[in-house]
Design brief:
Strand content: 25-35%
Distance between the termini: 56 Å
Family: Belongs to the transferase hexapeptide repeat family.
Helix content: 10-25%
Number of helices: 10
GO molecular function, one term: nucleotidyltransferase activity
Structural class: alpha/beta
Shape: elongated
Oligomer: single chain
Pfam families: GMPPB_C (PF25087), NTP_transferase (PF00483)
Number of strands: 31
Protein name: Nucleotidyl transferase domain-containing protein
Length: 415
């Protein structure tokens, strides 16, 4: 164990409005990190996981969003968890490692012995205290959370090879064209402050190369990496790959769930994973119902205290209902996220769908999809203030805000 005097800080990368286009139309209304999964903002899950790290001094959120978009959330979560949470806005893209380095003076204010780095769009059980314990055992500069996936899906991520006995990272390659390994990088790390020296070395080498070499315009066009700014440093290609096999980096494998939240469909899947986790970590957040005075609840369901649900409704599994929603008599909800101020009228059915803020679904209407979370139209998404009139069926479709549907639609994007 580390000494009780050692302090730890956590940095969560939240991205910005320049990214997240795949999350539309939901990201038109709210920054993606604040979109609710299992009734809590996406970024809330890694933040509450950080709370379990021993001797945690501070949590930093780093991104490009305007500070006002995070101000309210940051102050409320700081009060709730009794841990200081601070939002740091990047002036320009610096890369995943460069963004960390850009705020090194602030991050080192508490003289931490270890720095956690997490990506906001990762959904997992975040075994952070266990990672820290393993990292202290390994020594070295950093430990990466890894998971075993299918050989077919591995190439979408950073693949890595580790020593089966020592867990040392031996080889790392980002999204390889040929199969390297079925172990992938989960986007969760713990580092010692030496990481800042490693990032600085990359910047310095790049400056030196730029000064030494006068490349022709043809060569400049051929290589994108040669034109990278000296302060733009990527964690995967610029730090992890070169340091692999040098007894600097190690891996910690999770046997639990892990997903990356790139699309609204994946947010629906991840909401279900977090709801299932609540059964063990936060059972008080899950709804219960016996079908008499309250609605019939099937498996893991979150219902905001201000939502009004008719006793004859049947809800679940994997349903999250946000503030001030109104669920009418006989409604059936399966595998869906219902956002604030939504009204679902009597005998309406919602399956594999996300229903946007202030939307309304009429009597005997159906809003549904096949539930292929990776397909573009695998879940149905209604943007803000969409009205689905009585007896209308919406299947595998995306509807942008402020639309009224009075005829049934299937596999359409309604702009």
């Amino acid at each position: 164990m580390g000494s009780s005097e050692e302090r730890v800080v956590a940095v969560i990368m939240v991205g910005g409005p320049t990214k997240g286009t795949r999350f539309r139309p939901l990201s038109l209304n709210i920054p993606k990190p604040l979109f609710p999964l299992a009734g809590q903002p996406m970024v809330h899950h890694p933040i509450s996981a950080c709370k379990k790290i021993p001797n945690l001094a501070q949590i930093y959120l780093v991104g490009f969003y305007e500070e006002r978009e995070f101000a309210l959330y940051v102050s409320s979560i700081s009060n709730e968890l009794k841990v200081p949470v601070r939002y740091l806005r990047e002036d320009k893209p610096h890369g995943s490692a460069g963004g960390l380095y850009n705020f090194r003076d602030l991050i080192m204010e508490d003289s931490p012995s270890h720095i956690f780095l997490l990506n906001c769009d990762v959904c997992c059980s975040f075994p952070l205290p266990e990672m820290l314990e393993a990292h202290r055992t390994y020594g070295g500069m950093g430990t990466i959370l890894v998971i075993k996936v299918s050989a077919e899906s591995a190439s979408q991520f950073g693949e890595l090879v580790a020593d089966p006995d020592t867990n040392e990272l031996l080889h790392y390659t980002e999204k390889p064209e040929t199969f390297v390994s079925d172990r992938i990088n989960c986007g969760v790390y713990v580092f010692t402050p030496e990481i800042f020296t490693a990032i600085q070395d990359v910047s310095s080498q790049r400056k030196d190369r730029a000064n030494l070499r006068r490349i022709s315009s043809f060569e400049a066009l051929q290589s994108a990496t040669r034109s990278l700014p000296t302060d733009f440093v990527r964690l995967d290609q610029d730090i992890l790959s070169p340091l692999a096999g040098k007894k600097q980096l190690y891996t910690y494998e999770t046997m639990d769930f892990w997903e990356q939240i790139k699309t609204p469909g994946m947010s629906l899947k991840c909401s279900g994973l977090y709801l299932a986790q609540f059964r063990f970590t936060s059972p008080h957040l899950l709804a219960g119902g016996d079908g008499s005075k309250t609605a019939t609840i099937v498996d893991d369901v979150y219902i905001h205290p201000s939502a009004k649900v008719h006793p004859t409704a049947k809800i679940g599994p994997n349903v999250s209902i946000s503030a001030n929603a109104r669920i009418g008599p006989g409604a059936r909800l399966i595998c869906c996220i219902i956002l604030d101020d939504v009204e679902i009228m009597e005998n309406a059915v919602v399956i594999h769908s996300i229903v946007g803020w202030k939307s309304s679904i009429g009597r005997w209407s159906r809003v549904q999809a096949e539930g292929d979370y990776n397909a573009k139209l695998g879940v149905t998404i209604l943007g803000e203030a969409v009205t689905v009139e009585d007896e209308v069926v919406v299947v595998n479709s995306i509807v942008l805000p402020n639309k009224t549907l009075n005829v049934s639609v299937q596999e359409e994007i309604i702009l």
